[in-house]
Amino acid sequence: MRTTANDPVDALLATGLKDLWYPICPSGFVKERPVSLRRLGRKFVVWREASGKLHALEDHCPHRGAPLSMGMAMGDRIACGYHGVQVRADGVVTKVPGSPGCKLEGSRSTRSFHVQEAAGAIFLYNSSQNVDTPPPLNLPKELTDPEYSHFLCYTEWKGDYRYVLDNVMDPMHGTFLHKQSHSMAEGDATANFRIRETDIGFVFEKEGQRDVNFDWTEWADTGIHWMRLEIPYPKTGGPGGNFIIVGSYTPITNELAGVFHWRCRKLTGWQKDTWRFLYKNRLEARHWAVLEQDRVVLELMEPDANQREMLYQHDMGIVRLRRHLRKLAQAQLAPQEEKAA
């Protein structure tokens, strides 16, 4: 009998589905020196060339397994600090100073990964095997359209990243947990919900209430999984439309999650400048206070809390998302199971 502890589907979801883009850190995390990042069930070394171009390999030297991040970046390659073995960004060993001409030279012995920088973050394509060309990184319009302005909010929360997914796919918690917020004090304390399918995912929304509170959440798959919601803003929130939050969440370990939220508004010209000034000087601290409420609740939940639930109608979105992610994991595992059989 399979349990959560030995379920291969759960194990895959715990470390992140393959062949998807994930945000792994803010851009400022990687400067002139190689950086080691534990994400998605493994350690990566990420570094920049002098031009700023990014590269990523598994943080593992094929010679003796030393962390490549302890070595020296040399343009498009990195020299291991243990024995000087040079590994190129495509995973090919180009030089073994201690034993020139040995069979290690010329071998593609280290996993390589594609990385791309956008919207103030570094994204990594979590490929199941080495690929020469990854699919395009397709982000929502709020992060690519110049008519929108955004700020990246990055933090790390203790616990499984899937609790963060559940939290965002739960608009009703805003009415209670965040009821003292300057932007979530309105609306009914009871609601019926529905699921509306889209071409790239689905929307979980309150029936008969829109632009009043945190009234809906969208989940989407565009080669990267992301979530979006809107919160109506009072006039004291400055120019622009609703306050939009785009989120994407990455497992660091089973007990730590990388939480990426982009806070966005649609505006241009002087209104954009006004909004950005107002955000940094007045609104950002309020938003962190709201986020802190979520963090405290999630970090105090037991690791097996989602195994001992009694769900009701407000939780349809969570059930829908969990089932969909399990189907994606099952599809990725199917070729391995067929081969084993």
Automatic annotation (TrEMBL):
Q: Does the keyword Lipoprotein apply?
A: no
Does the entry feature the keyword Cell inner membrane, yes or no?
Answer: no
Q: Which CDD domains match?
A: Rieske_RO_Alpha_N
Q: Which residues form the Rieske domain?
A: 21-124
In Gene Ontology terms, what is one molecular function of this protein? 2 iron, 2 sulfur cluster binding
Q: Matching InterPro entries, A to Z?
A: Cholesterol_7-desaturase, Rieske_2Fe-2S, Rieske_2Fe-2S_sf, VanA_C_cat
- Keyword line: 2Fe-2S, Dioxygenase, Iron, Iron-sulfur, Metal-binding, Oxidoreductase
Query: Which SUPFAM superfamilies does its entry note?
Result: Bet v1-like (SSF55961), ISP domain (SSF50022)
User: What is the recorded name of this protein?
Assistant: Phenylpropionate dioxygenase, large terminal subunit
Taxon lineage: Bacteria, Pseudomonadati, Pseudomonadota, Betaproteobacteria, Burkholderiales
